[in-house]
Structures are given as structure tokens and as C-alpha cells.
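F.,

This is the one I mentioned.
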């Protein structure tokens, strides 16, 4: 049965990463399955266009200070009017901050509503100090009571809901474009641009913000060179910590790239690397890490995050010693470690993710309002 699935998301812009990728892939999948996806996001100006992921409506929203340009939807009256005009059959909300009210709005109208948890609220609030967890529990409780279903992409992400008694949590992993992100993207000329023969090429690919801990990738490079490993690091991404990282990297072989909008260029960089470092401690899935695996490149990740679930044995999880993690990867035969990385990524596909999300949409139980 065809459904009009209206999707809402904050913190999305042309230069954003994982969330934007997931929204696009899911929307395109819904469209291919015969549904009518409509995505509403904040932006600088109003826009309404048809795209490969379905209809995308942009509503003006303010920039959140300190985020590097991310915007949020705040105009509730305008948004309510738009939702009423669109008459959704189902609602999918990728935000738990300014849009939580949409769950109750949908329930009052008998519209099944799903919230997708793309970030760890408990993790984010740890940056706010010791009172983070109680606030996270309070806000997460309000979220799971507001929506029919909560979708989490890993068991790690689901844990913060299940520990407060949420019974309406579904776990659906995201996917990766296995054709785009492929070992065949290896590029000798790209490698020659950044690394001399015999050097180890490390790559950090992601937003340069505090919750991603990009400084750990620089520390990994420094640690490797102290241990006698001739290595270089390429940092691909942008964000509020860029200037601080450039200062930290001064005197070391670190190359900074601007945000890479061309996904093929990203795939080539990941496929050409020897090791990708994904040091974020509160990642709930880690699409960039999965994309690296799909390119045949092992990943070193933070053991405290959800990434060990995603990478399995195709990488190394560490607590703090990312240089040591890189050494563990390099100790394995090249062909074996690259084959294992690709094989692990092949367990995740966007068609499977789309099917999982649609199954949740069409089996949403009603949760009593409390």
C-alpha cells in the first residue's frame, strides 16, 4: 500500500555528512518502493523541489551558534500549517530537540509517527557535565512516550532508551552504497599526492567538531612517528575545530582538505588510505567508517562508541591508543585485512535498511499517552 511519508529533520545542510546521506538513501528507497516521501528541512530560504529522494521542502530556520552553520526548524505555526496541507499517512522525524512535539501532533490525528535516533543524547550531554545523564533520561522518556516507535541503528544507540524502560524501540542498521564505495576506487595518483613511497597513509573523514574528537587522529599520527612509523595523515572535512586542529598539526605531516562534496572523490580517498581513523566516542553508527570498510580499508575506532558493532573484526577498537590500533591493523597482511573490510561492509546495504525502516512504519503500535 502506497503511503505519503512526511519526514522532518534538523541539522541538515549541503555540507553535512552522515545524516544527509542517510536521509537521501532512505528517501530514494521509499520512492523506489512506490511510496511518496516528502522531506522538510531548515535552510536559509524557502524552497520546494523534486529530487532523487522525493520532494524536499526547505523552510527558513535560524543557525544554531557554534555548530558551523547548522539550522533548526522553529516556526511551529508554519510547520503545522504545512503538515496539515501535506496530509501525511506517516511521519518520520530525525530530531529529538525542537521537533518532539510532532509526535503528539501526529497521535492526535491518528497518524503513525516514528522518531529516528541518529545521535546519542546521553553522549552529547556528557559534554555538559555531570548532570548530563539525568537530563538525557528525562528527554529520552519524553521522546519514547511521544512517538509510536523509536528507530535506533545499533544496539549501542538503543541502550539509552531500553535502560529507561522504552518498549517501543526498533533496531535497524543503516547501509552503504557498495557500488560507489568500492576497493576499485583506489587511486595511485591520489596516493602520490599525499604520501611518498613506503609511507603509511592515514585518513580522518568527518566533521571537525568536539563530539567527533578529531584531535585524536592527529595524536595517532604523532604517536606513530614517535614509534618510528613513517606516516602521513589526511583530514577531510570541516567544522568549528578546524583552526585548532591546524595549530595542533603544525610541524607534522598533516594535509587538510576542504569539505568534499563529490562522493566519488570521498570514495577514492577512503579506498586509497591504508587505515581510516574514526575516533568519535559517541557515534551511534558511523557511516564514514562503514564507507571505508566498503572501500576495503580497515578502521580504528573508539571502543566506547557503537562502531565496534559496525566494524566487527574488520578493524580495531581502542580506548585511547589510536596509534597502537593502527599498528595492530598494519601487522595484518594487506590482502587479508582489505578483503575482511569489504566482506564486513557487504553485510550492510541500503535496500535492506529501507526494507527495515518501511517494516517499522507499517507495524507501528500505538503507545499510550502518559
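My design for it:
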Amino acid at each position: 500500500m502506497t503511503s505519503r511519508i512526511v519526514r522532518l529533520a534538523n541539522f541538515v545542510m549541503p555540507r553535512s555528512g552522515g545524516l544527509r546521506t542517510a536521509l537521501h538513501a532512505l528517501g530514494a528507497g521509499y520512492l523506489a518502493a512506490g511510496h511518496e516521501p516528502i522531506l522538510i528541512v531548515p535552510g536559509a530560504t524557502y524552497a520546494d523541489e523534486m529530487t532523487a529522494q522525493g520532494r524536499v521542502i526547505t523552510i527558513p530556520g535560524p543557525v544554531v551558534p557554534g555548530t558551523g552553520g547548522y539550522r533548526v526548524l522553529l516556526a511551529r505555526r508554519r510547520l503545522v500549517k504545512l503538515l496539515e496541507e501535506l496530509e501525511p499517512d506517516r511521519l518520520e522525524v530525525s530530531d529529538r530537540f525542537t521537533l518532539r512535539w510532532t509526535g503528539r501532533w501526529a497521535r492526535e490525528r491518528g497518524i503513525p509517527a516514528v522518531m529516528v535516533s541518529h545521535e546519542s543524547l546521553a553522549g552529547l550531554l556528557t559534554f555538559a557535565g555531570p548532570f548530563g545523564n539525568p537530563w538525557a533520561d528525562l528527554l529520552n522518556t519524553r521522546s519514547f512516550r511521544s512517538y509510536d516507535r523509536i528507530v535506533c541503528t545499533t544496539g549501542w544507540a538503543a541502550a539509552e532508551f531500553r535502560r529507561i524502560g522504552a518498549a517501543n524501540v526498533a533496531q535497524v542498521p543503516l547501509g552503504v552504497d557498495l557500488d560507489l564505495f568500492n576497493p576499485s576506487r583506489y587511486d595511485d595518483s591520489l596516493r602520490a599526492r599525499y604520501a611518498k613511497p613506503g609511507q603509511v597513509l592515514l585518513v580522518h573523514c568527518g566533521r571537525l567538531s568536539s563530539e567527533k574528537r578529531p584531535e585524536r587522529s592527529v595524536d595517532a599520527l604523532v604517536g606513530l612517528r614517535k614509534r618510528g612509523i613513517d606516516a602521513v595523515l589526511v583530514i577531510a572535512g570541516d567544522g568549528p575545530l578546524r583552526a585548532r586542529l591546524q595549530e595542533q598539526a603544525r610541524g607534522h605531516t598533516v594535509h587538510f582538505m576542504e569539505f568534499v562534496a563529490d562522493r566519488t572523490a570521498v570514495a577514492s580517498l577512503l579506498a586509497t588510505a591504508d587505515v581510516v581513523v574514526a575516533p568519535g566516542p559517541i557515534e551511534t553508527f558511523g557511516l564514514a567508517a562503514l564507507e571505508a570498510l566498503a572501500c576495503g580499508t580497515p578502521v580504528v575506532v573508539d571502543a566506547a562508541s557503537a562502531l565496534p558493532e559496525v566494524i566487527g573484526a574488520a578493524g580495531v577498537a581502542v580506548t585511547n591508543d589510536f596509534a597502537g590500533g593502527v599498528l595492530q591493523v598494519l601487522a595484518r597482511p594487506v590482502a587479508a585485512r582489505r578483503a575482511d573490510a569489504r566482506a564486513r561492509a557487504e553485510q550492510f546495504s541500503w535496500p535492506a535498511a529501507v526494507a527495515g525502516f518501511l517494516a517499522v512504519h507499517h507495524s507501528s503500535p500505538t503507545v499510550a499517552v502518559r
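Confidence is low (pLDDT under 50) at residues 365-370.

Talk soon.
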